[in-house]
Amino acid sequence: MMLNFRKFRPQEDILAQEWSSQFVAPAVWQLTEERLNGEAQSRWAVRNDGVRAVAKPAVSASGEVRGAHAKNTAEHALRCGVPVPPVQLWTDNSAGQRYSLSAAAFPQSLTWAQAQQSMTPEFRKNLIPVLTSGYVFHSWIDDRDHGGHPENLLISADSSETDPAIAIIDHAFSLTHGWKSGVPAFSLLNAYYLSSVADCAVDVMIAVMSQIEAIDEGTIFRIVNRIPTDYLDDSLKSLIINGLQFRTQGLKDAVSFLKGESR
Amino acid sequence: MRNDSSQAGALRSYLVRYCLDLTSSQCDYIPIGVIAAFRVGPRFALGLRVRSQLPAQDLQKIAKLAQPLFSRPFATLKIEFEKVWEAPKPDMAFSELSRVGSSLQFDSLQSSEIRPPSSVREFGHDSNQLKGWMREEVQSCLQERFDSFCSNIGDDASEDFARLAA
């Protein structure tokens, strides 16, 4: 049975399934004036039924395909039980601008930095399995922006101490972001939100690695190819498909090694 | 940036509020305070005005993990203040306050350009006159925004904090 670290409410789980079957949103969204400053130029968007999401330009000023990274990451995370909120792609036809829409994960959240002030030692201890799942997943997709980035990890303020709920957000700097001169071999990240990567739960690492390994090549191919070419051109699609398949090979070796070590 | 005290300064501010439901466009907010930054040439001023405490009925609406942060809202906001103040680029750090996806939201208000009066300009950037004028502008902005922000909740008790770059 798959280990599932997604602890979203049923509404967000339904949204994840809905957006997984409909990669591109229909024209039922509107941008609001509530801007979230920062380099990504994000702002809140609202669907006609009141659902809110963070809208980020799908292609950065430097041409990076951030929306496609976000969508790819959300779809693969859904299949590995890793808590990345649902993402949908959307074109604002009034301005001809393309966006990724990342659903708000929880009714009330704190950033990793803010939550430090109120987390008990027990809460921290119980975060280790879910953080381990994120650690393995981010290592696989070669994410370069979660090595402790205090704003890219949200914690549900409704979390129970025994079963904390987190959402990992902002995957612009994953996949092809670091692959301009080739795809590096799989390796585990050097730093993460855990105080030391040695704190990882090895049994969870092995389980999540196995869940990633179980995503067959056909699934990766289908996910990447369902992203329209105006969000991700064919050469970058090939790069992502080949890159993830290549890194899965390295991950398999790491699983074998860890299984040997843990025996 | 020109190093003369005749140029206009940029005064920016945020309303700080706690969002009770990030997933819905119909969500309610709890007002927390106002933070303002003022840049004139090489000089930077930062001010904060926060509700002293939240009434019990508001605090109860805040989910468990966040409650300790808002039993003393000033202490929580002062952490954000210090983060901006100590940043190598405080203007950028101030801009980035609003980028987080947390329930503690910083909603940008329209910024204004203010030129130092001639009685201040003649003393230059290093003068106590300019520092004093900037402090007064920040405090007046905080007071005006805070009063209008909190006028409909019948609560004017607040704690203030202001700093000016040396």
Rg value of chain A: 18 Å
Strand percentage of chain B lies at 25-35%
Backbone CA Rg of chain B: 17 Å
Helix/strand-derived class of chain A?
alpha+beta
**Residue runs with pLDDT of under 50 for 5 or more positions of chain B:** none
Q: Bin the strand percentage of chain A.
A: 15-25%
Largest sheet of chain A: 5 strands, antiparallel
Question: Number of helical runs of chain B?
Answer: 6
The number of helical elements of chain A comes to: 7
Determine the structural class of chain B based on helices, strands and strand pairing: alpha+beta
Straight-line distance between termini of chain B: 17 Å
**What's the average pLDDT of chain B?**
84
The largest inter-chain interface, given as chain pair and residues per side, is: A-B, 38 and 30 residues
- N/C terminus separation of chain A: 21 Å
Helix and strand run of chain A? HEEEHEEEHHEEHHH
Low-confidence stretches of chain A: none
Please outline the helices and strands:
The complex is a heterodimer of chains A (263) and B (166).
Chain A: H1 10-21, E1 29-36, E2 42-47, E3 52-57, H2 66-80, E4 87-92, E5 97-103, E6 109-111, H3 112-115, H4 121-140, E7 153-156, E8 166-168, H5 202-213, H6 217-225, H7 234-262
Antiparallel strand pairs in A: 1-2, 2-3, 3-5, 4-5, 6-7, 7-8
Chain B: E1 9-19, E2 29-40, E3 43-51, H1 56-59, H2 67-71, H3 73-86, H4 90-95, E4 104-108, E5 112-114, H5 118-121, H6 128-150, E6 158-164
Antiparallel strand pairs in B: 1-2, 1-4, 1-5, 2-3, 3-6
